[in-house]
Amino acid sequence: MRSRRWAGAAAVVVGGLLMAGCGNGDGSGDGDKASPAAGKAAAGDYPVTVTDCMGAKTTFDSAPKSIVTSNASSLELLLRLGAGDKVIGTGFPPGEGTLPGELDAQAQQVKVLSDTVIPKEKLLGSGADLYIDTFASMNMGGGMGDAPTEQEFKTAGIKHIFLKSTACAAQSKSAVTDLSAVEGDITSLGEVTGTSAKAKELVDGMKKKVDAVQKAVGKTAESERPTYFFFDYDAGTKQPMAICNRQVANAVITLAGARNVFADCDGDYKQVGWEDVIAKNPDWIQLGVRNRGSEAANEKAFDEAEKWLTSNSATKGMKAVKEGHFLRIGSEQTTIAGVENADTVEEIAKTIHPGKVG
User: 146 pLDDT band (50/70/90 cuts)?
Assistant: First the structure.
């Protein structure tokens, strides 16, 4: 998605560049608790302390009243938590129809501060008391000015926190193979906004789905797991973008009982050549198409992605292509941290392990 939609391409382009500010997220979830006592803010009990990628602390003595989100990922989580009324603006806004149900209508009411990265001066002058960053700090370039420094955030009265499952991903110490960091982000946001009860409900729902899949296919030997390639069609077909082992999609694929063919790549994303993909000869290919805002538009995009693979002389000989082993699952719910990651685990598992997952 581009323009008014949160773009996975931006996650690749921006997320792949702005990890210099992150350090120790390892996907284990150990550093993702929002306060010394988990669930402390279940009834709005403060103070609550959260940490960034390097362990620096930010303390909240009360719930924030005016929140700005860097993109649709953090915005969606706040909407799901019931804290959407506190959001006064966002960057990378979700396109109309791209969020489920009532969330979409709520999201469209949020002021758009930028179709992409929010310019520094606009962010600092937004009137926010909290900025939730899905990325890590960097020079944004492109005439948009530098990202605000922590001192500038402080001077403007804005507390700055991160979605660690995304912002700290590229420099994680180990491969991400579970959703604990995503669940940690949800828990943290719940504690910060005083919606811990809802956060627990969301996390428990995710765990229930994933646990059921794990019970069915979790013990499948590595050699018996089908190989899996996430084809990010919207990132371009000339040079494919591989999902590496620090990206949340690697956890989604692994939990579903598959093997990410680029799990040997340390980082979140990496550009590879089609010869590399062909050499991996995956058993299954996910057509990673971004939500166009309607079922018809999405199906059209899936059709285009499949046609490209089946008609291209270099790719049509791959096992998955010849056997028609395609999964039509959206990019966002696979590669962007959120509640729907668990749904994707379930959907993949049902497809590649038919009969084993209820």
Answer: confident
Q: Does domain 219-352 have CATH number 3.90.1210.10?
A: no
Q: Each residue of 314-324: pLDDT tens digit?
A: 999 999 999 99
The pLDDT value given to residue 170:
75
17-48 pLDDT tens trace:
333 334 333 333 333 433 333 444 445 689 99
- Each domain of the chain, given as residue ranges in start order, spans 8-204, 219-352
Candidates 198, 177, 179, 176; CA nearest to 187 is 198
Report helix, strand or coil for 246: coil
DSSP secondary-structure letter at 61? S
pTM: 0.86
Q: Show Cβ contacts of residue 67 under 8 Å, excluding neighbours closer than 6 positions.
A: 78, 83, 86, 87, 88, 128, 129, 130, 131, 132, 193
Phi, psi of 231 (to 5 degrees): -95, 105
- How many angstroms separate the CA atoms of 188 and 27, rounded? 15
CA torsion through residues 111, 114, 117, 118, sign = negative
Q: In whole angstroms, how far apart are CA 147 and each of 64, 66, 117, 195, 230?
A: 22, 20, 9, 29, 31
Phi then psi for residue 19, to 5 deg, are -90, 0
Tell how strand 57-60 and strand 48-51 pair up. antiparallel
**Cis peptide bond upstream of 47, omega within 30:** yes
What burial letters (b/e) apply to 71-84, b meaning 16+ CB within 10 Å? bbbbbbbbbbbebb
Specify the residue for token string 């103070």.
Answer: 47
Residue of 284, 285, 283 lying closest to 240 (CA atoms): 285
* Phi and psi torsions of 88, nearest 5°: -105, -5
Q: How much is the average pLDDT of 244-254?
A: 97
- The CATH number of domain 8-204, selected from 3.40.50.1980, 3.30.70.890, 3.40.50.300, 3.40.50.150: 3.40.50.1980
Look up residue 296 and give its two tokens: 């018809």
The confidence band for 356, taking pLDDT boundaries of 50, 70 and 90, is very high
